[in-house]
Amino acid sequence: MAKRIDEALVRKVAKLARLELADSEIEEFTVQLSAILDYMEKMNELDTADVEPLAHCLPISNILRDDSIKASLGTEKTLANAPQRDGEFFKVPKILDDGSAA
Amino acid sequence: MNELLDMDCKQLREAIAAKRVRSVEATEAVFEAIDKYEPIIGSYISTFKEQALAKAKEVDGKIAAGEVVGELAGVPVAIKDNLCTTFGTTTCASKILENFHSPYNATVIEKLLAADAVIVGKTNMDEFAMGSSTENSGLKQTVNPWDTSRVPGGSSGGSAAAVAGRLCFAALGSDTGGSIRQPASLCGVVGLKPTYGRISRYGLVAYGSSLDQIGPVTRTVSDCALMMNVIAGHDEKDSTSVSESIALVCNYLEKLDEPISELKIGVVPEFVAGGEADVQKATAEAIEVYKKLGAEIVEIEMPHFDYAISAYYVIATAEASSNLARYDGVHYGHRTERPADYIEVYSKSRAEGFGKEAKRRIMLGTYALSSGYYDAYYLKALKVRNLIRGDFTRAFEKCEAILMPVSPTTAFRLGEKIDDPLQMYLSDVYTIAANLAGIPGISIPCGFDESGLPIGLQILAPAFAEEKLLRIARMFEMQTDWHQKKPAMPK
To answer: In what order do the strands lie in the sheet with B190-193?
Structure first.
């Protein structure tokens, strides 16, 4: 199957997942994820060339409903849990620089 | 302990309706028990004494005035803390949601309230329902009422411990890979994972969306049927909840006591011979009970069962990594104190807010979905999932239900498996296949091991066959008294 997971790959995955992991966690996860992925290699014993993937078990496909306007939560309720807000907006640190470094 | 607390929901509901017991009395008895035992058991993340007593008083008033009341009128129940409520917090036992106040109620909460249930509190769990022992809770520890040095199982460990410990009359849990059935088994109570789509997941905080299902944790099969009457059914807010045209919701209590005649039960010989010796013995004895009741025991094969853990931990973690991306420190939940930039709002908030198992599963899922590994892990797992569903389809051509253990062991010691995630995952061996196939499964008490710890029997049925499944479980319950045993509560 795939190559064994190493620390560099664990760091890459942590970045993709937006998780800042301590070095000790990187080390620990490298060992643990390797063991789990090794166990999962077991799936390769099965020939699945002719098997369809099954994403969910329901006998339904697309669910349609009328495109009609219904009441929504409203601004106050929506913002009530925001860590930081500014009026009617969620507040976050600056994403773009002032212009010097575009 | 107050004798009221030994009633099941059905008895209590009848006693309240007949004005022999007031809901306020029952609710006060529950809170007395909570005051006394909760410091040891630790089953609740939050309780709502004032609100519960007010609701109880309201129900008593309605009954005194001769008004029509709901199916759970006045019955004190608990709910797992991954179900959204407009009252209190909805934490998922995670630091990242420790102060989260949901702006809406889950559909099952609306249904409980409409049935006039008294909601006592919200129960502890493995963080985001990820775990098999409730030790992954980021907020507190829950212990098993039968032996406080042992785990209650998980992830709905708080719900199972509260029901077993008489700290409520029934509870709701959620089951993604066994999270209702396994703690029910380890705590000696009844737990049902309904068919995927039978109960609305609206307001259930998502973990593995194609696997998650809400279900009851109760002391008897009858109570389980009663709870299903309240919570089952289509909900337009959840497009994966199945419409009545596909599967009718029925009155699960109506024929509950009628045994199924000419019942054919499937067993896989190697599963009956699996697990600890005491678990094997209890499972074999349960099969004998059904034989005496006239059931025919049919040997079946589940050739792909061995691959279920691998497929499950790929699919569940992949879905989890995607579902948990919403905890971004922006819209709700924990945000890191002084982020250097917007990337740190995400990466530090998440690092500080998530516990170890949540991080581990996000990592595993992100890996399985990432470029270059998707086909080898995720796609492969979905194909294996189809093979496992095929095993069940073929098995159910030969039988109406399948018996097997819930867990290979009884309750293990606190800390025993916490440092070895793979060992913890392997303890789900008998429960996860039902989630992959979407079928219903129940855990009912079927004995005790030599240390006096409860053992559960698992019964699985085809999709949407809950009515029959409950009747089959009830046949066993009427022949045995395991469900009447209760833990000697710690002093």
So the answer is: B44-47, B118-123, B76-80, B170-175, B213-218, B190-193, B441-448, B454-460, B401-405, B264-267, B296-299
Q: How many residues does chain A have?
A: 102
Q: How far apart are CA B5 and CA B32, in angstroms?
A: 11
- Tell me the chain A residues in contact with residue B377 when contact means C-beta distances shorter than 8 Å: 1-2, 40
Report d(CA B59, CA B84) in Å as an integer.
23
The neighbour count for residue B413, using CB atoms within 10 Å, is: 12
Sequence-separated (6 or more) residues with CB below 8 Å from residue B244: B233, B234
In order along chain B (491 residues), what is the average pLDDT of each group of 10 residues?
91 96 98 97 98 98 97 98 98 98 98 98 98 98 98 98 98 98 98 97 97 98 98 94 84 97 96 93 98 98 96 97 97 94 95 98 96 93 97 98 97 95 92 98 98 98 97 98 91 68
Residue that the structure tokens 């595993």 belong to: B364
User: Residue A54: which of B332, B334, B385 has the nearest Cβ?
Assistant: B385
Under an 8 A CB cutoff, do B366 and A13 touch?
yes
Show me where the domains of chain A are located: 7-45
Nearest of B387, B456, B270 to residue A45 by alpha carbon: B387
Contacts of B370 in chain A (CB under 8 A): 13, 16
CATH class of the A7-45 domain in this structure: mainly alpha
How many other CB atoms are found less than 10 A from the CB of residue B479?
13
Cα(B308)–Cα(B433) distance, rounded to whole angstroms?
6
Compare CB distances from A42 to B307, B347, B354 and report the shortest one's residue.
Answer: B307
Token pair 């290699």 is found at A41
Task: Note if the pTM is more than 0.95.
Answer: yes
Query: Distance (Å, rounded) from C-alpha B178 to C-alpha B130?
Result: 11
Residue indicated by tokens 């994966």 = B240
Q: Report all structural domains of chain B as residue ranges with CATH numbers, in order of start.
A: 3-250+257-262+412-484 (3.90.1300.10), 307-375 (no CATH)
Locate the chain B residue with the closest alpha carbon to A20.
B347
> Which among A2, A57, A60 has CB closest to B376?
A2
Chain A CB contacts of B304 below 8 Å: 46
Helix axes A23-40, B308-323, angle to 10 degrees: 140
